[in-house]
Write a structure and sequence with these properties.
By secondary structure, the chain is mainly α. 72% of the residues lie in helices and 0% in strands. It is elongated and about 95 Å long.
Length: 117
């Protein structure tokens, strides 16, 4: 004759472990869905007009950087950014000063330029 399996009652610790596992699974699914939503938002915000604006701002930055420090490259600018952050410079003041410098030095040169130049 076969013996019946005895019923196993789960302890409170086992039930808590199962609840924690379910919670972790839900959080992982939620993170994945939020990442998908953020990706869709980024795609929408990167419309052609915003890409064009970003490209123009990048060009203005490069022109201003070449005028202010012609022999410097990206490595020098990274060091300056790090030093500014370490000194705790006020972001608003830096933004205003940077905007003024971009207005002054970041404008394209007027007139027609040769293709070979």
């Amino acid at each position: 004759m076969e013996e019946k399996k005895k019923r196993h009652r789960r302890t409170a610790e086992e039930r808590l472990a199962d609840l924690e596992r379910q919670r972790a699974e839900l959080l992982e699914r939620q993170k994945a869905m939020l990442a998908k939503i953020d990706e869709q938002k980024a795609k929408i915000t990167k419309s052609p007009t915003s890409r064009k604006t970003d490209l123009e701002n990048q060009k203005r930055f490069e022109r201003a950087a070449k005028k202010l420090a012609p022999d410097w490259d990206h490595r020098h600018f990274i060091v300056l950014i790090q030093e500014a952050v370490e000194r705790g410079m006020d972001a608003d003041a830096v933004t205003e000063r940077g905007q003024a410098l971009l207005e002054e030095h970041g404008k394209p040169r007027r007139g027609r330029r040769l293709k070979s130049a």
